[in-house]
Write a structure and sequence with these properties.
alpha/beta, 3 domains, Rossmann fold, 407 residues
Length: 407
C-alpha cells in the first residue's frame, strides 16, 4: 500500500533522526516530535517535496527564531513562526560548506601536478575553494602529520584521522585561479548569508562553528569568483574561463557531496563530461551515487559509505565532512601496512617505550609486531614504496641476528 504524503514526510523525519540526526541531540528530538505532529506535518506537506528536507526545515526554524529548547516547550513557536519558516525554506537550500572537506580534497590534489585552477560545483560560500589557506593536523597510528601554508600557520587548522598516508606531510597546492558554481551562492560579506551559513552548523557543534566563522573571514580576503547557476549548465563556461585566466594550470573540477542532488540523467551527463574533458575531477560521494563506483570500491577493498574519487576512480574512503580518511597508495601497500611502516620509521629501534607503544597503537605483542613488519618489508610493494628504508631495515635486522649468534 502506497504511503500518504503525510506518512512519507513523517518517515523522512524519523530516518533523519536515526541517521544524520544523531549528530545533534536537539535536532534528533525535534525531528522525532515533528514526525508525530499531525498539525505541523500538514503544514510541511504543503511545501514542495525538495523543501521538506528535515535539516533544511530545522535550520529555517532556528533562523526564524525558534529557541533551541525541548520541542514540548517550543512547539507554540513552530506554529506561530511557521509562515516565516516556510518562506525561508522556499528561499534557501542546505549548503553545508564544511572547511574540513579540504582534507580529502588535499589528499587528491597531492596526486595532481600544479599549478591548479580549481572549480567547485555546489560551492556555497567558497569555504572549500581555499585548501591552500588552511593548516592541517592529521593523526595516524603513533604519529602526527602537520602541514601549513607557505605563509605560515593558518587561523584555521583542519584535524582529521588519516590511515594509509605516507611519510611526507601533504604538499599545499599552488592555486592560481578559483571559481565556485552554486544555484544560490552565499556571500560572506552579506550578514543574512553569513547568518544562514552559520545556522547550517548543527546546534551542539561549537568547534565546527568556530571553524566556519574563521574560514569565512579568510574567504573574505581571497580573490574568488562565485557564479550563479546549475552545476552542469555552468561547468563548461567555467572551465573555459579557467583556461583563459590560467593557461598553464591544471584545471581541477571539485564536487564535494553535491552530485546526489542532481537527477540521475544530469548526474550521468556530469560524470561523462568530467571523464571526457581535459580536466582532473575530484569528487566526494556516497558509494551508490555514481554509476560503477560501488563496484570499483569493492574491488579496491574500500568499504565506507562515502568515497573520494579522482577522475572517477576511488582513492579513499572518507567521512563525508572530512574528519577521517583511509587512503589507497600507488605502491600497492594496504593502508594498515603503510601505517605500520611509517610507525616503525617514527619509532625506530629498541626504544624503552616500544612495547607499550606497539600495544597501544596496534594491539600486538612486540614479537608479533616484528613478525608482521618483517613480512611487509620483504614484499615487492614495500620495496617500490621506499627501497632505501627496506635496505636499512634489512641491514639492521642482519646486524641484530649476527649479534644474537655471537651471544
Amino acid at each position: 500500500m502506497a504511503l500518504s504524503e503525510r506518512d512519507r514526510a513523517a518517515d523522512w523525519f524519523r530516518r533523519f533522526a536515526d541517521a544524520e540526526g544523531r549528530e545533534s541531540q536537539r535536532y534528533r528530538e525535534w525531528a522525532l516530535a515533528l514526525a508525530e505532529d499531525d498539525e505541523l506535518l500538514a503544514k510541511i506537506i504543503r511545501l514542495p517535496v525538495a523543501k521538506r528536507q528535515p535539516v533544511l526545515l530545522l535550520t529555517c526554524a532556528r533562523v526564524a527564531g525558534v529557541p533551541l529548547r525541548p520541542f514540548a516547550t517550543v512547539r507554540p513557536d513552530f506554529v506561530k513562526l511557521w509562515p516565516r519558516i516556510a518562506v525561508l525554506a522556499k528561499e534557501r537550500a542546505t549548503q553545508t560548506n564544511d572547511p574540513r572537506r579540504c582534507s580529502p580534497l588535499l589528499i587528491a590534489l597531492n596526486r595532481i601536478q600544479g599549478p591548479i585552477a580549481l572549480i567547485e560545483v555546489g560551492a556555497s560560500a567558497g569555504l572549500t575553494l581555499i585548501p591552500d589557506r588552511y593548516s592541517y593536523a592529521w593523526t595516524a597510528r603513533g604519529r602526527r602529520i602537520v602541514a601549513d601554508p607557505p605563509s605560515g600557520p593558518s587561523t584555521v587548522t583542519l584535524a582529521a584521522k588519516v590511515a594509509g598516508w605516507g611519510a611526507n606531510p601533504p604538499t599545499i597546492p599552488l592555486i592560481v585561479y578559483r571559481e565556485g558554481i552554486d544555484l544560490s551562492p552565499l556571500r560572506v560579506a552579506s550578514s543574512a548569508d553569513r547568518e544562514w551559513l552559520e545556522a547550517l552548523v548543527w546546534p551542539e557543534q561549537t568547534d565546527r562553528l568556530d571553524t566556519v566563522r574563521n574560514a569565512a573571514d579568510i574567504v573574505a580576503d581571497v580573490d574568488l569568483l562565485l557564479t550563479v547557476g546549475d552545476a552542469l549548465d555552468q561547468l563548461r563556461a567555467a572551465v573555459a574561463r579557467a583556461r583563459k585566466a590560467a593557461p598553464k594550470a591544471t584545471v581541477v573540477v571539485w564536487s564535494p557531496a553535491v552530485l546526489v542532488y542532481l537527477d540521475p540523467a544530469r548526474r550521468a551527463e556530469f560524470q561523462k563530461y568530467c571523464r571526457r574533458a581535459t580536466v582532473r575531477w575530484i569528487s566526494l560521494d556516497g558509494r551508490n551515487v555514481l554509476a560503477g563506483l560501488a563496484a570499483a570500491a569493492n574491488k579496491r577493498g574500500l568499504e565506507g559509505d562515502y568515497l573520494l574519487t579522482l577522475d572517477g576512480e576511488p582513492i579513499a574512503e572518507v567521512d563525508p565532512l572530512g574528519r577521517s580518511a583511509i587512503v589507497l597508495n600507488t605502491a600497492g601497500l594496504s593502508p594498515d601496512d603503510m601505517d605500520l611502516i611509517e610507525f616503525e620509521r617514527v619509532h625506530w629501534g629498541a626504544l624503552r617505550s616500544k612495547e607499550s607503544l606497539v600495544r597501544t597503537h596496534w594491539g600486538l605483542p612486540l614479537v608479533r609486531y616484528y613478525q608482521r613488519l618483517y613480512a611487509i618489508m620483504e614484499s615487492a610493494a614495500a620495496r617500490r614504496y621506499d627501497p632505501v628504508l627496506v635496505r636499512t631495515f634489512d641491514e639492521s635486522r642482519d646486524s641484530a641476528n649476527q649479534r644474537s649468534r655471537r651471544e
